[in-house]
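ingest -> validate -> predict -> emit
validate: passed (alphabet ok, no gaps, 319 aa)
predict: started
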Amino acid sequence: MSSGDVLSVDLKAQGAAMLEGKGGFYEELLDGLDDGVYFVDPMRRITFWSKGAERITGFKSAEVVGSSCADNILMHVDDTGRCLCTTGCPLEATIKDGENRSADVFLHHKDGHRVPVTVRVAPVHDRTGRIIGGVETFNNRSSQQSDLQRIRELEQMAYIDSLTGIANRRFLDNSLSSRFTDVSQAQGGFGLIMLDVDRFKKFNDTYGHDTGDQVLQMVAQTISLNCRPFDTVGRWGGEEFLIVVGRSKKEDIQELAETLRALLEKSGLTVEGQSLSVTASFGATMVRPEDDAHSLAERVDGLLYKSKESGRNRVTFED
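emit:
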């Protein structure tokens, strides 16, 4: 059963039961879904949190039930980085007007990275038809979650970065060579995005190398989960990451770089009770007819450092 099936069911009986803390059959049914499901009361306090929600977010039911959406636990943001939990919340709007809604948003995983999800929201009524809360279902829309065969192949060929779990420098070099072959055969252009974690040395010096490793893992997860299946995301070296953007126009590359920048800015880690924010500086460019792999990588690296010199946490794009 999918989340769409859940929303098509009459929510009056099970919704009221969940809001009153009476799970029973419906709790078992919803816990069996791959999608995440949670119920809120009229004040947007969470009254039920499914097993699917635990798997997708990393947050256990005991950590969120009783909290309010306004507490910004999942910290939903759109692709510009705008926080939806405090402004533009679909659940809040649905509780007010009774209309079903859906949206593609990015939630905050307990480990710090951003996960792209599709949320579907519906009102919950009592037996008289009065709205007494809302229900939201959500599913991970990252194409890379289902690409297990590709991951196994990369591991077998030693193309995976051991720390971050994404492609390593060797695989990125091969991917670039392959893209240039496509260009020579008139199969379309491509672009390159390079990013470097801002003030990374501070994380290592202040909080230790374990925290520095967590920062790199969080950045890797955020960018890899939010690229398309035909883009190649990898660790270029140290705190630098590279994205080979396939079959794209310059507007697509600019938009992707800005979206990733905004998502990283809204991500973060909690270390010893302290919230650590992470930003990155980006360079982005399209391939040129006269380019080879070396000249393209050298140019995007120069654009990245223009972003560093201009104040960090920004994208510098050159057509």
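Residues 3-140 form a domain with the Beta-Lactamase fold (CATH 3.30.450.20).
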